[in-house]
Structure formats: C-alpha cells, structure tokens
Amino acid sequence: MVEPRSSPERVDVNIEGVSKTFITASKAVQALAPITLNIARGSFIALIGPSGCGKTTLLRIIAGLEKQDEGAVLIRGQEPEAFRSGGELGIVFQDPVLLPWRSVRRNIALPLQILGQSVNAQERRMVDLIELVGLGGYAKSLPGQLSGGMRQRVAIARALVTDPSILLLDEPFAALDQILRRTMNLELQRIWMARQTTALMVTHSIDEAVFLADKVVVMHSGPGRIADTVTVPFARPRAHDLFVTPEFHALCDRLAIALDSGAGQR
Amino acid sequence: MSEKLRVVFWLAVTLLAWEALGRWSPWGYDVISTPTRIAAQYWRDAVLYEPHIAATVRSALLGFLIGNAFAIVAALLFCRFPSFEAIFRGINIALFAMPPIVIGPILILILTGDWPQIILAALMVYFPTMAAMLVGLHDIDPRLIDVVHLYGGKEFALTRFVRLRSSLPSLLAGLRVAASLAVLGAILGEFGSGVRWGLGTFLLGSLGEANPARLWGISLAAAALAMIGYGAFDWIGARVGGATTAVTLAAARLPDQIAGHSRDSLTRRTLLLIAAIALPFVLWEVLLLATRLSPIIAPGPLQTLEYLFVGPDAANERQIMLQALAETLPIAGLGLVAGLAAAFVLAALSILRPSLVRALLPAALVLQSTPLIAMVPIILLIFGRGVMASIVMAVLVVFFPAFVLLAQGFALVPRAARELVQVYGGGPLKQLALVSIPFAVRYLYVAAKLVAPRALLGVMVAEWLLSGVGLGNLLNVSRGTLDYGMIWAGALISILISIAAYQSVGVVERLVRSTAMV
Predict the structure, then answer these.
(1) Which pTM was predicted?
(2) Domain spanning B295-518: CATH superfamily
(3) For labeling, which of A30, B308, B395, B436 is most exposed (least CB within 10 Å)?
(4) Chain A interface, mutation test: which of B139, B141, B146, B150, most A Cβ atoms within 10 Å?
C-alpha cells in the first residue's frame, strides 16, 4: 500500500521529488511538478488523470526510458536502468506493438532473446505462460491472424516472460471495446494474483481503475501532479458483479469529483 | 479465372487490332509494324538475340549485385550513424539526380571490357535500394525501441530483432525498381562502350536500318528483361507480405525523404553541409589518383573548370556548351511541365471516373519501370528524328512515374473529407476543387522532384540516339572526337543542372507553402 514512511523492504518503488520539463522548439512544457510516491510490494496501483497530466511520462521514468530532471527513482534500492537489466520490469502499451512476422510464441520470447537467454531452456514456462493468458493452441499463429484482445494478451505474456517483479501497464486496454475490456480486466486480475507482481497501471477509465487497483492515484495537469490518493477496499478476487454495487459507484463518483476539481486549473 | 480470361481476351483484341492496323493502315509497315512481322523477325534474329541478351543480362546482374551490396551496407551505416548520412548527402543527391547517360562516356575512359556498363548499372541501382532500405530501417514503432531498451538491448539488438526484418518489404520494393534500372544501366553503358554484344549495341546498330519489325523486337525484348526483374521481386515481395500502398509509394524515394531530422547545433549542421558538398569532389580526385590515369584523359574537378573557364580554348568551349544547353534545357523543361500537368489532370479525373484509374494504373505501373531505352525505337518510328521526338521522350519518362505517384496521392484523400462535401450537396467537381486537389497538390511536388532529373535524361537520350542536337549529342560527338575535357565538363554541368532542378522544386514548394500560411 502507499505508505510514505513504510519500512524499505516492503516498498518496491520510491519516487522522491521527481520532475520533468520537455523543451520544444518554441517553449518549455513542465510535464511533471515534483512528485513523491511510494509503491508497496505486490500492490496494484492505478494512475488516472486527464490527457497530458504526465502519467505516461511518470511510467516511462520508472521504466528508465526517460530521465527525470530532478529527484530520484529507486526500485528496491536501485536506479531503474540497473534494476531492469535482468528483466525485472515488464511493460504493456495501449497497442500490442508486436512483431508481425513472428509467431505468438516467438513474440513472447523476444525479451529472453534480447537478454541473451536460451528460449528452449524455458520451454515449459513458455507453454505455461501461453496457457495463463488464455492463448493455448495459438502459439504458432501470427499476430495478423488474431483478434485485438488476443494480441493484447500476447503483449501481456511478453511482459511476463522474464518473470518481472514489476509490471508497468500504459492504458493497456484503451483500444478495446467496453465488453472486451471488462473481460480483460478480469483476466489481468487473475494473472496478477497468480504472479504476485507489483503492478502500476495508467488508465483513463475510472471504473477500470477502481475494479483493478488497491490504490488509485489521481493526477491533475498543468503541471502534472498528484491530487489525491484513494484506497480501494474491495476484497479479491473481484468479479463482474462488483460493477453494479452501490459502493463501487460511490467510489467512482468520488474519483470523478477528484478528477473534475483539477479541470479548471489548466 | 474470369479475371484471367478478361486479360487474355483484351490481349487478343489488342494484338488483332495491331495486326489489322499494321497491315491495312497507311503508316502500317513503316511505323507500327505488326505482331506477326515482329514474331517472324524474332525467328530470323534468334541467333543474334541469344548473345546480345546474354551479355546485357550478365552486365545488369553484376551491376545489380555490386550496386545493391553497396546500397544495403550504406543504408545500415546511415541508419546507425546519422552524421554519416549527412556527410554522404551530396553523393546521394548526385547519384539520384545524375543523368546516367553522361556517366557512360566517363566510365569508358577509366574502365575496360564490360566494366563500364556493369558499373553504370551499379551506380543506377544504388540510390533506389539504399533509400528504400533506409526508410524501412527507420520506419519502426518507437515503442519497440522502448521494449528493446527495457531489456537492456542497444542499437545492435534493435537492428537485429526489429529493424532488419521490418525493412524487408521496403527493401524488396526498392530492389524491384533496381532490377529494371540495372537493365537500363547496362544498355545505356553499351551505347558508348563499343562492345560487340549487348542489346544496347544491337539497338544502336539497328537504328539506321529500315527494319521496323527488328526495332520493335529489340524494344520489346528490353522491356521484357526489365519486367522479368521487376516481376521477380514483386513476386517475392508478395510472398514476404506486408506489401502495402505505403510500400509501393516507398519504391521511389527522394533524397529529402531519407534525410534525418537532425537536432545538431547550427555550427555542426553547417560543417556537415560543407562536408557533404565537398565529398563528391574529393572522391572524384581520390578515384583519379587511384586509377593513375593521365589528367588529359581524366581531369579532376579543378582541371574541368579550367577547361571551361581558363584554358586556351575556353571561350569557344563555353560557347559550344551554352549552345547545347540552349537546345536541351527548354525541351526538358517543356517535357517536365507537360508530363506533370497531364499526369495531374488524369489523376484528378480519376476521382470523377474511378474506372479510368483502374484501367490506367496497371499499365502505368508497368510502363514506369520499362527502361526508357525501350521507347526509343518506337518514338523514332512514330516521330522521326526531330525536336518532337525529344519532347515526346521527355513527356513519356515524366508522365508514367508522376501519374503512378499522383494517382496514389489522390487515393489517399481521406474519405470523410470528401463525404463532408457530399453531405452539403456538393457534387464530384466541388469535391475535387475543395478537397481532393488541395490535398493532392503536395504529391505534385514529390512527383516533380522525382521526375525532374528524368526529364533531362529523356531529352539527352533522344538527342544522343535520334535528333543529333543538344547536350546529349555534344557528349556523343565529344566521345567520337576524343574531346575528353568536354566529356567531363558536360557530365559535370548536366549533373549540376539536374541537382539544381531537384532543389529548386523544393524551393518553390517552400515559397508556396509559406505564402499559403499567411
């Protein structure tokens, strides 16, 4: 859970005063005001906020794909670049971003190959993983032969193949329709519970955030900053009937108000 | 099946109509010949064709291999080290814009045997392959870069797992163009090299004979060779998959489409620009030093300028050169404008009559990769050896590639934008005027850059082989009179004019864009 003063061994990600400004040709845009956030081991955190509030930038800084101007990010005491070197981070984007010429199996194996590990030695794990994401029987299919939801499952499996301790999800289901999205939410919860990873998900959808997360972090824009942090009390595993409960709606309404309060400050 | 039947049917109709016209119309025998006469001539010439075709195929193949090997290595280097690409920009633009016919006589001075035509073919295939591959290497989803970086992969892993394979469709589209250019390069090289065998030699020897059936035969054979090469890579491309419209458009790339968007400082950019301009001349000097040729046969850049401006006969040589330019440039300009205008109007009409494009586009796709040499005999037969032949040649080499590009440009007009006009009751003409033409005008600039150098090449080929005037003829005559200075000066001037034509389209484009913004 998000506890600023929690003991170091229970916290996975320490974000301490991280800020970022992008310099374009005409002006400097501050994407992130100094942000401080701690993420507990094994928790599921959702980041929600309007477009341009810096949620994706924050995710990319945690992944070490972007460098912050000030502040520090430590993952289990290490800089992101050092931490991720053994495949300890997995990432899923809004689109699957698969290699269209590689089969499902070979797409999932890509991180292992980049890390220089033998794919054949991990055959058993590959088979299990393909089963876990519900793609048994499709190992040899090409991405072009799969539906959008199935392709996104391949992307999730690729992110999990190195058995990462932290999973970063950047609006992973935004391109899917609402019905498929809810199914995928259920699947993601199942996979996350089976793997015991820490998950950080960026999303635009309030009910997706509430359904999946232990903590929802609300961000405001101009510059991007944390406006509110809301704990989600529902027991796990959560099922689809949660969507119709009054408690669920009450929490969604609260988050909607928290989001709205930042809308005037652009 | 019905599609194939339709093709066979129309082919049969065309052949029958050709045969009938050839037999019974007033210009039958002398101009269009007939399929049966051409076939009979093939039968009689079979013994000749075998060694001629074998020689051309051999030169084209070797040139194809050498040029593409350089192109692929260069694309990989340019992708990995963008400054390298910036330094080589001058060379790349020169190789894109050079009229290859002016390089032939120079290669003959420095090389022997079949090497002039092999190297000419190699020089011609380099740019399209390099540009297509480089665009393919660059054109990847930026998030794949993130994925590779996330697992500690560097540029090498990115190239190995992502860039190489994803550039393949684009590379094959480039090779498709390169295959037909290799044939053209080999034939153009044979014109000047005086080798015994080769379709170029055969054509040169047959232009003076009054034998239309043989000229048609050579023309069709050259076109067929180029099409076989084009078709082979088209077939492989379809197998590999990923052949989209984007890839088809990518088949003909421009130097400024591969130019990297540099974030370098102004000083660094200026230094790179100076290096890019200097490098072709430095390379010219170095090559001459390496070949150890006499400076009389092979002058360097400075001696070539001397020849035109300081030498004992400089005023006279300048006069000859200016005279030739005055004959060539207006025709090339006229051909360029007329060809582009025709292509634009026809492509625009395709919005009103889509069936028109469906009928014309396949033919244009085929004809744009037919070596222009194949058109020479036909133009000779129809238009004779006058100025008209040069104009038609220029229009034809401009029209087909421009039409293919513009038709694809018009096809890219967003449907929603056209339907917006329709919703408010606007007819097809309104759609054209308000949406399609303003949208597609940008492709006119792309087309103009692509074909401007070709217009000059078309006119020079016609002048060399048919009309006996202008710059093309000047180079041919200088070759005969061993006027080495003129060969080099003519080549330098025509390459510079070609580059200037290419760059000035860009200047016009920027001017129009900036006034439109106000």
Answers:
(1) 0.86
(2) MetI-like (1.10.3720.10)
(3) A30
(4) B150
